[in-house]
Amino acid sequence: MNGKVLLVDDEPPITRNLEKVIPWSMLGLEIAGTARNGVEALELLAADPADLVLCDIRMPVMDGLELVRQIRERGLPCDVIMLSGYQDFAYTRSAIQYGVKDYILKPIPYDELTGVIARVMSERRKRAQQEREEQRKLERIMDLANEKLLYDVLMDYTDSTPDNWLLAGQERLLGEPKYTLVVLDIDVCSEDVRDWRDWPDKERKRWNFAVCNILRDALRREGVPHSVIQMRDGEWCVLLLGGADDPPVPGGADAEREQLCGKRVVGWTELLLKAVRQHAKLGLHAGAYYKIAAMNELSAAYTTVRRGMQLASDGGPIAFYGAEQPPAYEIGRTLWEIAERLIAAMKRGDAGGVDQEQRRIAKRLQGAGGVPEGRLKAWLHFLALHLMRELKEAGLLPREQEEALWRKMDRRFGVKDLLAAIRQASSEGAARSTDKRKHSELLMEQAKHYIDRHLFRDLSVEEAATHVGLSTSHFSLLFKGAFGETFIEYVTGQRMEAAKALLQDTPKSVAQIAKEVGYSERRYFTKVFMKYTGQNPTEYRMALHGAGTYAQFEEDPEDER
């Protein structure tokens, strides 16, 4: 697509020569118009923006320098090349100040001007390309941040509101975003899984990442606004913006709209399954929530679909969940709830709680009555896979135990074997969780001791984490879990308590106390102290000792502010 150039000169012969002599088409430009002064030029630019302006300096009504100043003041995104018959350095200096790309003296050397235009347009195209690349990078960063936010919402880790600044632009335009939710999962009974489960962890992580990209690319090509979030090893949640209300059926009833939505979701899901089969050579099965869900409904919708995919009757490669379920589903739902309590007890290292939930699973299976053994095995397959994923997420599943679980999930093993494998894995996971928690508690005590010894100097969370051999993010998570507050909150609290004691027991000035508790800047210390106590240091001291004793303390005049 050609760019546009505007020619501005009060001498018509010059503009006619420029139109004829310069090879505009070869330069990728077309002439948008001509003007005799700056006022006419601004009117033309307002009606039809140009990429390049060639203008004379000396013109009636509005000269070239004033025109350039107006262009910059109005933020018009065009480059400017000045033409002038005057060699006065003051003109050149003013032109440079206004960001003029070049300054050509008359009589115009057309070959030189052609070269200058080519250079200016080449630089402009490079800038535009860089801006597009930066915009794509920014959009991807925002997508990743948005996906992290949506992951937290799906997992019920946060109560985000729809107007969160991380949400994508389309979502903000819609006000309250609504989503069609689809869960894609590996089929543990599929022959494809045999190869996948033998891959080393590094290879599986790379494969999980590749599947995310395959899903995103497929939806991007279709122009469907979406987010793809990897939830666990071999499981992805696809959120499609909109659903049953987009597009509406003219004059149609709700049932007709829902039918249309269902067809569209099935079409999109089939597209995704086909893409993964084609590019990743692995089959998945899919479940979709039966209606569109608002932001605050996503966690419940995700739980419903994930549960339904494993516990409801087989519904083919694509099924909808969330409406009323058959009676047999209730048995599976109870097993799901027991499994969630089992995993929570295991992560806490609660051996008694693990044992109790194991007995509940056995009792529930014994009371399953007329449920076919094949269905019971399917439920236990899910429970074993769910347990395996949670153990891996918590770093509690050795490779050999994972392989043993996969073998037990093979069809030739019965319900009793699967149940025994689940019992063993959950009991060992609880024991490892206890050991891991004890180790973490020891590290946090070491960290706290180190922080307390270095409290009153410039101490960072990175330094404290390095001291106990942890990454900053892992250290921050463990510290908050151990002490109920963040590193910064703990350090600030300890410093403020020390400052309160010094204000009460010593005659030192606020500036001296600020330095002693680790603040080089007194004003910043005062700000933090006020936030912590509701009073500035001087007011706090006066409240303790009374206004009549204020004179005995050596205070700077600024301490009262």
UniProtKB/TrEMBL annotation:
<dbReference type="InterPro" id="IPR018060">
    <property type="entry name" value="HTH_AraC"/>
</dbReference>
<keyword id="KW-0597">Phosphoprotein</keyword>
<dbReference type="InterPro" id="IPR020449">
    <property type="entry name" value="Tscrpt_reg_AraC-type_HTH"/>
</dbReference>
<feature type="domain" description="Response regulatory">
    <location>
        <begin position="4"/>
        <end position="121"/>
    </location>
</feature>
<keyword id="KW-0804">Transcription</keyword>
<dbReference type="InterPro" id="IPR001789">
    <property type="entry name" value="Sig_transdc_resp-reg_receiver"/>
</dbReference>
<protein>
    <submittedName>
        <fullName>Response regulator</fullName>
    </submittedName>
</protein>
<dbReference type="InterPro" id="IPR009057">
    <property type="entry name" value="Homeodomain-like_sf"/>
</dbReference>
<feature type="coiled-coil region">
    <location>
        <begin position="118"/>
        <end position="148"/>
    </location>
</feature>
<dbReference type="InterPro" id="IPR011006">
    <property type="entry name" value="CheY-like_superfamily"/>
</dbReference>
<keyword id="KW-0238">DNA-binding</keyword>
<dbReference type="Pfam" id="PF12833">
    <property type="entry name" value="HTH_18"/>
</dbReference>
<feature type="domain" description="HTH araC/xylS-type">
    <location>
        <begin position="445"/>
        <end position="543"/>
    </location>
</feature>
<feature type="modified residue" description="4-aspartylphosphate">
    <location>
        <position position="56"/>
    </location>
</feature>
<keyword id="KW-0805">Transcription regulation</keyword>
<dbReference type="Pfam" id="PF00072">
    <property type="entry name" value="Response_reg"/>
</dbReference>
<keyword id="KW-0175">Coiled coil</keyword>
